[in-house]
Design goal:
It contains five helices and no strands. By secondary structure, the protein is mainly alpha-helical.
């Protein structure tokens, strides 16, 4: 049977880049799907030269790009988070 263990820094999930990137990607996609009128209004407010430089599938590519970035960011060491985890780990060992 597979034993599931949480990573040591699970209580700091909200500090992870991958969480922020995937959340922002979901928000962009949700905004476009559930509030298309607002997305269209924002699009119509843009100047024509900017509209011409943005491809029509922009929101889809942005959402996919943020998702890919969140996957990649899971493998990048976040120094501050790692240092906090190490300090907390040392403190818990000295408390025992």
């Amino acid at each position: 049977m597979i034993k599931v263990e949480l990573v040591g820094y699970w209580r700091k999930w909200w500090k992870l880049w991958s969480v922020w990137l995937s959340t922002f990607g979901i928000l962009v996609l949700t905004f476009a799907v559930y509030f298309p009128q607002y997305a269209l209004d924002a699009w119509n407010m843009l100047p024509p030269d900017i509209k011409n430089s943005i491809p029509p599938e922009f929101l889809q590519k942005i959402s996919i790009g943020l998702w890919v970035a969140s996957l990649i960011s899971k493998f990048i060491k976040q120094k501050k988070l790692t240092q906090e985890h190490f300090q907390n780990d040392q403190n818990s060992k000295t408390d025992n």
